[in-house]
Amino acid sequence: MPTPFRHTEPLPPKAATGRVAEVYAQAARDFGIPEPAPFVVLSSAPALVAPAWALMRESLIAGPGGRTGKEVAAFGVSQANKCRFCVDAHTMLLHATGDHALAERLARGQEPADEQHARVLDWARRTRVPGAAREPYPFPREEAPGYLGTALAFHFINRVVSALVTENLLPADAQRLRPVRSLAGRSLSRTVRRPAVPGAALPLLDDPGPGPAWAAGTPVGPAYAALSTTATMGAGLLDADDQALVRATLRDWDGSHPPLVQGPFPDRRERPGARLALLAALAPGGITDADVAAWRRPEHTDHCLVHLVAYGAFAAVDRIETALTAPTAPSTPQETS
How many C-beta neighbours within 10 Å does residue 300 have? Predict the structure, then answer.
Protein backbone atom coordinates (compact mmCIF):
# COMPACT_ATOMS: atom_id res chain seq x y z
CA MET A 1 0.00 0.00 0.00
CA PRO A 2 1.53 3.37 -0.95
CA THR A 3 2.49 5.67 1.90
CA PRO A 4 0.58 8.95 2.25
CA PHE A 5 3.78 10.75 3.25
CA ARG A 6 6.47 12.55 1.24
CA HIS A 7 10.18 12.81 2.09
CA THR A 8 9.74 11.20 5.52
CA GLU A 9 8.63 7.91 7.04
CA PRO A 10 7.00 8.48 10.44
CA LEU A 11 6.54 5.60 12.84
CA PRO A 12 3.25 3.72 12.51
CA PRO A 13 0.69 5.28 14.87
CA LYS A 14 0.24 1.94 16.63
CA ALA A 15 3.85 2.28 17.83
CA ALA A 16 3.23 5.68 19.41
CA THR A 17 3.91 6.18 23.10
CA GLY A 18 3.80 9.05 25.59
CA ARG A 19 2.47 12.42 24.47
CA VAL A 20 2.09 11.35 20.86
CA ALA A 21 -0.17 8.45 21.87
CA GLU A 22 -2.15 10.84 24.09
CA VAL A 23 -2.66 13.20 21.15
CA TYR A 24 -3.93 10.37 18.97
CA ALA A 25 -6.36 9.33 21.71
CA GLN A 26 -7.63 12.89 22.14
CA ALA A 27 -7.94 13.31 18.37
CA ALA A 28 -10.05 10.15 18.19
CA ARG A 29 -12.35 11.49 20.87
CA ASP A 30 -12.60 15.18 19.91
CA PHE A 31 -11.85 15.18 16.16
CA GLY A 32 -13.32 11.82 15.22
CA ILE A 33 -10.13 10.79 13.42
CA PRO A 34 -7.74 8.79 15.62
CA GLU A 35 -4.59 9.21 13.54
CA PRO A 36 -4.86 12.40 11.44
CA ALA A 37 -2.12 12.50 8.79
CA PRO A 38 -1.04 16.11 9.60
CA PHE A 39 -0.12 15.03 13.14
CA VAL A 40 1.22 11.59 12.24
CA VAL A 41 3.69 13.20 9.84
CA LEU A 42 4.92 15.46 12.66
CA SER A 43 5.53 12.48 14.93
CA SER A 44 9.09 12.05 13.69
CA ALA A 45 9.67 15.17 15.81
CA PRO A 46 7.42 14.27 18.78
CA ALA A 47 7.79 17.64 20.52
CA LEU A 48 5.81 19.27 17.69
CA VAL A 49 2.77 17.01 17.78
CA ALA A 50 1.08 18.18 20.98
CA PRO A 51 1.45 21.96 20.34
CA ALA A 52 0.16 21.66 16.76
CA TRP A 53 -2.78 19.56 17.91
CA ALA A 54 -3.48 21.86 20.87
CA LEU A 55 -3.69 24.96 18.68
CA MET A 56 -6.11 23.28 16.28
CA ARG A 57 -8.21 21.75 19.05
CA GLU A 58 -8.45 24.81 21.26
CA SER A 59 -9.39 27.09 18.35
CA LEU A 60 -11.32 25.12 15.72
CA ILE A 61 -12.89 22.47 17.96
CA ALA A 62 -13.26 24.06 21.41
CA GLY A 63 -12.65 27.77 20.89
CA PRO A 64 -15.17 30.62 20.80
CA GLY A 65 -17.39 30.77 17.71
CA GLY A 66 -19.57 28.29 15.87
CA ARG A 67 -17.94 25.23 14.32
CA THR A 68 -19.46 25.82 10.88
CA GLY A 69 -18.08 29.36 10.65
CA LYS A 70 -14.63 28.24 11.76
CA GLU A 71 -14.69 25.38 9.24
CA VAL A 72 -15.44 28.00 6.56
CA ALA A 73 -12.41 29.95 7.82
CA ALA A 74 -10.21 26.86 7.73
CA PHE A 75 -11.46 26.12 4.19
CA GLY A 76 -10.64 29.68 3.07
CA VAL A 77 -7.14 29.61 4.53
CA SER A 78 -6.49 26.22 2.93
CA GLN A 79 -7.78 27.50 -0.40
CA ALA A 80 -5.53 30.56 -0.22
CA ASN A 81 -2.55 28.31 0.50
CA LYS A 82 -3.49 25.89 -2.31
CA CYS A 83 -3.50 22.94 0.09
CA ARG A 84 -5.82 20.53 -1.69
CA PHE A 85 -5.64 17.91 1.07
CA CYS A 86 -6.95 20.42 3.64
CA VAL A 87 -9.52 21.94 1.26
CA ASP A 88 -10.99 18.47 0.77
CA ALA A 89 -10.82 17.73 4.51
CA HIS A 90 -12.77 20.86 5.43
CA THR A 91 -15.35 20.22 2.73
CA MET A 92 -15.91 16.84 4.38
CA LEU A 93 -16.01 18.43 7.84
CA LEU A 94 -18.59 20.96 6.67
CA HIS A 95 -20.73 17.98 5.71
CA ALA A 96 -20.18 16.75 9.27
CA THR A 97 -21.61 20.00 10.68
CA GLY A 98 -24.82 19.24 8.80
CA ASP A 99 -24.53 22.10 6.32
CA HIS A 100 -24.42 19.92 3.22
CA ALA A 101 -25.51 22.68 0.84
CA LEU A 102 -22.68 24.94 2.01
CA ALA A 103 -20.14 22.14 1.70
CA GLU A 104 -21.16 21.42 -1.88
CA ARG A 105 -21.28 25.08 -2.90
CA LEU A 106 -17.67 25.44 -1.77
CA ALA A 107 -16.72 22.15 -3.45
CA ARG A 108 -18.09 23.54 -6.74
CA GLY A 109 -16.11 26.77 -6.35
CA GLN A 110 -19.15 28.88 -5.52
CA GLU A 111 -19.49 31.45 -2.76
CA PRO A 112 -21.63 30.71 0.33
CA ALA A 113 -25.28 31.73 0.07
CA ASP A 114 -25.19 33.02 3.64
CA GLU A 115 -23.73 36.54 3.80
CA GLN A 116 -21.93 35.97 7.10
CA HIS A 117 -20.24 32.82 5.81
CA ALA A 118 -19.27 34.68 2.63
CA ARG A 119 -17.61 37.43 4.69
CA VAL A 120 -15.72 34.89 6.81
CA LEU A 121 -14.55 33.05 3.69
CA ASP A 122 -13.31 36.27 2.09
CA TRP A 123 -11.51 37.26 5.30
CA ALA A 124 -9.88 33.85 5.64
CA ARG A 125 -8.57 33.93 2.08
CA ARG A 126 -7.10 37.38 2.67
CA THR A 127 -5.20 36.31 5.80
CA ARG A 128 -2.44 34.93 3.57
CA VAL A 129 -1.57 38.48 2.53
CA PRO A 130 0.12 40.20 5.49
CA GLY A 131 -1.94 43.17 6.59
CA ALA A 132 -4.90 42.50 4.28
CA ALA A 133 -7.27 41.02 6.89
CA ARG A 134 -6.99 43.28 9.92
CA GLU A 135 -9.92 44.55 11.93
CA PRO A 136 -12.81 44.97 11.59
CA TYR A 137 -13.14 41.20 11.59
CA PRO A 138 -16.26 39.50 10.19
CA PHE A 139 -17.12 37.94 13.56
CA PRO A 140 -17.85 39.26 17.06
CA ARG A 141 -14.82 40.35 19.09
CA GLU A 142 -15.46 37.68 21.72
CA GLU A 143 -15.08 35.00 19.01
CA ALA A 144 -11.75 36.38 17.75
CA PRO A 145 -9.57 33.86 19.67
CA GLY A 146 -11.39 30.97 17.99
CA TYR A 147 -11.28 32.41 14.49
CA LEU A 148 -7.76 33.85 14.65
CA GLY A 149 -6.44 30.66 16.23
CA THR A 150 -8.12 28.57 13.53
CA ALA A 151 -6.66 30.67 10.73
CA LEU A 152 -3.15 30.57 12.19
CA ALA A 153 -3.37 26.86 12.99
CA PHE A 154 -4.17 26.09 9.38
CA HIS A 155 -1.53 28.41 7.98
CA PHE A 156 0.86 26.10 9.83
CA ILE A 157 -0.89 22.80 9.10
CA ASN A 158 -1.38 23.61 5.39
CA ARG A 159 2.35 24.13 4.98
CA VAL A 160 3.32 20.96 6.82
CA VAL A 161 0.79 18.94 4.84
CA SER A 162 1.76 20.43 1.47
CA ALA A 163 5.42 19.73 2.21
CA LEU A 164 5.20 16.24 3.69
CA VAL A 165 1.82 14.63 2.86
CA THR A 166 0.40 13.60 -0.51
CA GLU A 167 -2.67 15.40 -1.88
CA ASN A 168 -5.00 12.41 -1.56
CA LEU A 169 -7.15 12.69 1.55
CA LEU A 170 -8.70 9.27 0.87
CA PRO A 171 -7.36 6.32 -1.15
CA ALA A 172 -7.72 6.74 -4.91
CA ASP A 173 -8.74 10.38 -4.34
CA ALA A 174 -12.22 9.13 -3.45
CA GLN A 175 -13.12 12.36 -1.63
CA ARG A 176 -13.48 14.04 -5.03
CA LEU A 177 -16.81 12.18 -5.39
CA ARG A 178 -19.76 13.93 -3.75
CA PRO A 179 -21.38 10.78 -2.27
CA VAL A 180 -18.06 9.76 -0.70
CA ARG A 181 -17.31 13.10 0.95
CA SER A 182 -20.90 13.41 2.13
CA LEU A 183 -20.85 9.92 3.63
CA ALA A 184 -17.43 10.54 5.22
CA GLY A 185 -18.72 13.77 6.73
CA ARG A 186 -21.82 12.08 8.10
CA SER A 187 -19.62 9.47 9.78
CA LEU A 188 -17.98 12.29 11.75
CA SER A 189 -21.14 14.26 12.48
CA ARG A 190 -21.71 13.02 16.02
CA THR A 191 -18.18 14.00 17.09
CA VAL A 192 -18.18 17.33 15.25
CA ARG A 193 -21.51 18.41 16.74
CA ARG A 194 -20.64 17.37 20.30
CA PRO A 195 -19.47 20.31 22.46
CA ALA A 196 -15.79 20.12 23.38
CA VAL A 197 -14.44 21.30 26.73
CA PRO A 198 -11.94 24.15 26.28
CA GLY A 199 -8.47 23.57 27.66
CA ALA A 200 -8.36 19.77 27.50
CA ALA A 201 -5.21 19.85 25.33
CA LEU A 202 -3.24 22.13 27.67
CA PRO A 203 -2.05 19.31 30.00
CA LEU A 204 -0.20 17.92 26.96
CA LEU A 205 1.98 21.06 26.85
CA ASP A 206 5.11 21.89 28.85
CA ASP A 207 4.73 25.28 30.60
CA PRO A 208 3.79 27.18 27.43
CA GLY A 209 3.08 30.64 28.87
CA PRO A 210 -0.09 32.71 28.45
CA GLY A 211 0.27 33.48 24.75
CA PRO A 212 -0.57 36.60 22.73
CA ALA A 213 -3.03 39.31 23.76
CA TRP A 214 -5.49 38.51 20.94
CA ALA A 215 -6.16 35.12 22.57
CA ALA A 216 -7.81 37.04 25.44
CA GLY A 217 -6.87 34.56 28.15
CA THR A 218 -8.46 31.56 26.40
CA PRO A 219 -6.65 28.21 26.00
CA VAL A 220 -5.85 29.26 22.43
CA GLY A 221 -3.09 31.51 23.82
CA PRO A 222 -0.97 28.86 25.58
CA ALA A 223 -1.43 26.54 22.60
CA TYR A 224 -0.16 29.20 20.19
CA ALA A 225 2.76 30.02 22.51
CA ALA A 226 3.73 26.36 22.74
CA LEU A 227 3.74 25.90 18.97
CA SER A 228 5.74 29.10 18.51
CA THR A 229 8.40 27.94 20.97
CA THR A 230 8.67 24.42 19.61
CA ALA A 231 8.52 25.21 15.89
CA THR A 232 11.19 27.90 16.08
CA MET A 233 13.61 25.36 17.60
CA GLY A 234 14.19 24.24 14.01
CA ALA A 235 16.15 27.45 13.41
CA GLY A 236 19.07 25.71 15.11
CA LEU A 237 19.47 23.55 11.99
CA LEU A 238 20.57 26.66 10.05
CA ASP A 239 23.58 28.89 10.52
CA ALA A 240 23.19 32.57 11.37
CA ASP A 241 23.40 33.72 7.74
CA ASP A 242 20.68 31.31 6.62
CA GLN A 243 18.44 32.33 9.52
CA ALA A 244 18.92 35.98 8.54
CA LEU A 245 17.99 35.16 4.94
CA VAL A 246 14.78 33.46 6.06
CA ARG A 247 13.82 36.42 8.24
CA ALA A 248 14.58 38.98 5.55
CA THR A 249 12.67 37.07 2.87
CA LEU A 250 9.61 36.67 5.09
CA ARG A 251 9.75 40.33 6.08
CA ASP A 252 9.49 41.30 2.40
CA TRP A 253 6.90 38.66 1.46
CA ASP A 254 3.63 40.08 0.12
CA GLY A 255 1.48 36.95 0.43
CA SER A 256 1.96 35.86 -3.18
CA HIS A 257 2.81 32.36 -4.37
CA PRO A 258 6.36 32.94 -5.62
CA PRO A 259 7.68 31.03 -8.65
CA LEU A 260 10.07 28.18 -7.93
CA VAL A 261 12.33 29.44 -10.69
CA GLN A 262 13.66 32.96 -10.22
CA GLY A 263 11.78 33.22 -6.95
CA PRO A 264 13.28 34.06 -3.54
CA PHE A 265 14.66 30.57 -3.03
CA PRO A 266 18.45 30.11 -2.96
CA ASP A 267 20.15 27.44 -5.04
CA ARG A 268 19.95 24.03 -3.37
CA ARG A 269 23.64 23.44 -4.09
CA GLU A 270 24.68 26.56 -2.20
CA ARG A 271 22.21 26.98 0.67
CA PRO A 272 20.08 23.84 0.85
CA GLY A 273 18.84 24.41 4.41
CA ALA A 274 17.68 27.95 3.77
CA ARG A 275 16.03 26.79 0.56
CA LEU A 276 14.05 24.09 2.39
CA ALA A 277 12.95 26.48 5.13
CA LEU A 278 11.82 29.12 2.63
CA LEU A 279 10.04 26.58 0.47
CA ALA A 280 8.19 25.34 3.57
CA ALA A 281 7.15 28.93 4.30
CA LEU A 282 6.16 30.09 0.83
CA ALA A 283 5.82 27.13 -1.56
CA PRO A 284 5.78 23.91 0.47
CA GLY A 285 4.31 21.82 -2.32
CA GLY A 286 7.40 22.68 -4.36
CA ILE A 287 9.78 20.76 -2.10
CA THR A 288 11.33 17.98 -4.17
CA ASP A 289 13.36 14.87 -3.43
CA ALA A 290 16.34 16.73 -4.88
CA ASP A 291 15.89 19.59 -2.40
CA VAL A 292 15.81 17.18 0.52
CA ALA A 293 18.75 15.13 -0.80
CA ALA A 294 20.88 18.26 -1.23
CA TRP A 295 20.38 19.12 2.44
CA ARG A 296 20.58 15.64 3.96
CA ARG A 297 23.73 14.67 5.82
CA PRO A 298 24.28 11.49 7.83
CA GLU A 299 23.23 13.38 10.96
CA HIS A 300 20.02 14.69 9.36
CA THR A 301 17.27 12.27 10.35
CA ASP A 302 13.56 12.59 9.64
CA HIS A 303 13.38 14.28 13.05
CA CYS A 304 15.58 17.07 11.70
CA LEU A 305 13.68 17.39 8.42
CA VAL A 306 10.33 17.74 10.18
CA HIS A 307 11.77 20.36 12.54
CA LEU A 308 13.20 22.33 9.61
CA VAL A 309 9.89 22.25 7.73
CA ALA A 310 8.05 23.30 10.90
CA TYR A 311 10.47 26.19 11.38
CA GLY A 312 9.86 27.45 7.86
CA ALA A 313 6.10 26.96 8.18
CA PHE A 314 5.95 28.86 11.44
CA ALA A 315 8.13 31.66 10.08
CA ALA A 316 5.28 32.35 7.65
CA VAL A 317 2.70 32.02 10.44
CA ASP A 318 4.60 34.52 12.55
CA ARG A 319 4.69 37.01 9.67
CA ILE A 320 0.95 36.57 9.11
CA GLU A 321 0.09 36.76 12.83
CA THR A 322 2.05 39.97 13.35
CA ALA A 323 0.26 41.69 10.46
CA LEU A 324 -3.15 40.13 11.15
CA THR A 325 -3.38 41.19 14.79
CA ALA A 326 -1.63 44.56 14.64
CA PRO A 327 -3.92 47.33 15.84
CA THR A 328 -5.40 49.43 13.09
CA ALA A 329 -3.93 52.92 13.18
CA PRO A 330 -6.53 55.56 14.05
CA SER A 331 -7.35 57.99 11.32
CA THR A 332 -5.71 61.39 11.66
CA PRO A 333 -8.22 64.23 12.09
CA GLN A 334 -8.26 66.68 9.24
CA GLU A 335 -6.77 70.03 10.14
CA THR A 336 -9.07 72.99 9.72
CA SER A 337 -7.92 76.40 8.66
Answer: 14
